Amino acid sequence: MLDDQLKTQLGAYLERVTQPFELVASLDDSETARDMRSLLETIQSLRSDKITLRFDGTDARKPSFSVQRTGASTQLRFAGLPLGHEFTSLVLALLWTGGHPPKVEQDLIDQIKALDGDYQFEVFMGLDCHNCPDVVQALSLMAVLNPRVQTVVIEGNAFHKEVTEREIMAVPMVFLNGEVFGAGRMSLEEIVAKLDTGAAAREGAKLSAKDPYEVLIVGGGPAGAAAAVYAARKGIRTGVAAERFGGQVNDTLGIENYISIVETDGPKFAANLEAHVRAYEVDIMNLQRADKLVPATEPGGLVQVQLANGGVLKGKTVILSTGARWRNVNVPGEAEYRNKGVAYCPHCDGPLFKGKRVSVIGGGNSGVEAAIDLAGIVSHVTLVEFADQLKADAVLVRKLLSLPNVTVHTNAQTTEITGAEGKVNGLRYKDRATGAEHLVALEGVFVQIGLVPNTEWLKGTVELSKHGEIIVDARGQTSVPGVFAAGDATTTPYKQIVIAAGEGAKAALSAFDHLIRSPAPAHA
Asked: Residues 219, 320: contact at Cβ < 8 Å?
């Protein structure tokens, strides 16, 4: 199952195991079970003094195996083979069970251990899903830390019948005690916050007690990260309040146009952004959603950012870098069938539609790239574009049109996503030239029609464009003194990672210049 290089790497990792644990397999006569046996035997052979392997498991899901510390009641199980993107999740589960400490803040560990209740998680994942490992690793760690948390990680392709019966059409999909808990990427902090209902109020009070920042950044994507690094390098007190560090980058698969980095992926790039910011004395406050901006009442005074949890942060200057999110097509059926055939991440959810018919709404780069990727998985792709021609780069359009299982409809307005029995069964569109209505029978719809700036909370405070973007000048200054903005949430053209990073750096330099030229408050 593992080549020599991977065995060597795994063996080096397993040297960090300090506490004995056992792997208990429940196998059948399938090929997957044979591969699982081989994988487990390899793992056990690499650390036989600490790892015991048994094949007498009686779990109903076969093939599967549990990972449990000797003498403890750890309840962590993998159903199917955790390879591909999930091999790292397996390695971490082995290390944590074997006593190696996780790279998690102690306060969060204590919060997990203190959870009061019995939690039975089932997380369905796909081996090609780049959003899944964060969720799998979070729930695995919770099962290792708290005996009242039970986690089963289920590889969808190995249990396709169950995926079909439970109408799972997007991964990661998480069930808690048999009910849907969440879909899509979730961090450990987010999951714990949903379970610990009193955490928000405690966190809000804690944040309100913080001293004012000289530069307070709202948003942790490329713009926010760059702003934080540039501000911190000036030696000034810098804080970042982010709903999800990395922002939309976390949902991007391939990145091949960030200068000096030939190729990377979104989650890795997001992790590197955070690591770079943490290399400086920056106060990172994750899982914080801003609700209101309160301008300073006097020159040189403090700007306030009110948070959803009731907390209030203060800054002498503020940089807004809240980014953007995927735009909804806003037609009947979209909300009803979200995660039941309507999807937004072709890389994550595409494998669930293997051999089926799907549509992509949108003819820009993201839509055409999605159609090209899906064409290699599904039986047929129908791309629907509102404009009279595709807007993607010429090289992508040529590639798309060369594919035999792709149909393109331009000048076509999507009017409805249809469904039956709780899942998508078609897409209806109107020919804008003739007015004729058409219905395409299919099983999945991928929406790829651009972005919406995350600026609703700023209406009435900061001047916005008709598209909801923050209006900025050449220095990143907004209509509010001492408040700057950068990235996809602004009127700066071309929503690209490299441009957002540059604009973030510019906003930080502008904020610093503002600080050194600002008068002291009258009451100082």
From this structure: yes
- pLDDT tens for residues 476-504? 999 999 999 999 999 999 888 999 999 99
What pLDDT, in 10s, does the model give residues 327-339?
Answer: 999 999 999 998 8
Kindly report the backbone phi and psi dihedral angles of residue 163, in degrees, each rounded to the nearest multiple of 5, phi listed first: -60, -45
Phi, psi of 194 (to 5 degrees): -70, -30
Mean pLDDT for all residues in the chain: 94
Cα distance between residue 243 and residue 94, in whole Å: 30
**What mean pLDDT comes out for the span 7-14?**
94
Amino acid identity, position 264: T
Q: For the segment 255-265, what is each residue's pLDDT rounded down to a tens digit? A: 888 999 999 88
Q: Please, are residues 227 and 215 in contact by the beta-carbon 8 Å criterion?
A: yes
Residue 69 CA to residue 17 CA, distance in Å, equals: 11
387 or 185: which carries more pLDDT confidence?
Answer: 387
Q: Categorize the per-residue pLDDT at 522 as very low, low, confident or very high, splitting at 50, 70 and 90.
A: low
The helix or strand, by DSSP H or E, that contains position 511, with its residue range, turns out to be: helix 497-517
pLDDT digits (tens, 9 = 90+) for 267-304: 899 999 999 999 999 999 999 999 999 999 998 899 99
The encoded tokens of residue 468 equal 């909801």
Distant-in-sequence, close-in-space partners of 521: CB < 8 Å, separation ≥ 6: 298, 299, 300, 301
- Residues 6+ away with beta carbon under 8 Å from 339: 169, 170, 173, 183
The per-residue DSSP string of 243-302 comes to SSTTGGGGG--EE--BTTB--EEHHHHHHHHHHHHHTSSEEEEES--EEEEE--SSTT--
Beta bridge partner(s), residue 241? 218, 285
Q: Which amino acid is at 72?
A: A
Run of H or E residues at 425: strand 423-431
Calpha distance 255→265 (Å, rounded): 5
The pLDDT assigned to 350 comes to: 87
**How big is the chain, counted in residues?**
524
Residue 224 has pLDDT above 60, yes or no: yes
Q: What share of the chain is helix, strand, coil (3-state, %, to 5)?
A: 35, 25, 40
CA distance 349 to 343: 7
Question: Considering the entire predicted model, what is its pTM?
Answer: 0.75
SS3 of residue 422 by DSSP:
coil
* CA 65 centroid distance within chain: 27
Q: What is residue 350's three-state secondary structure?
A: helix
Written as six digits, the tokens of 241 are: 């309040």
Task: Report the C-alpha gap between 234 and 336 in whole angstroms.
Answer: 49
**C-alpha closest to that of 154 among 134, 175, 138:** 175
- Give the model confidence (pLDDT) of 128-142 as tens digits: 888 899 999 999 999
In terms of DSSP bridges, do strands 357-361 and 444-447 run parallel, antiparallel, or are they unpaired?
A: parallel
Residues 226, 507: Cα–Cα separation, whole Å = 9
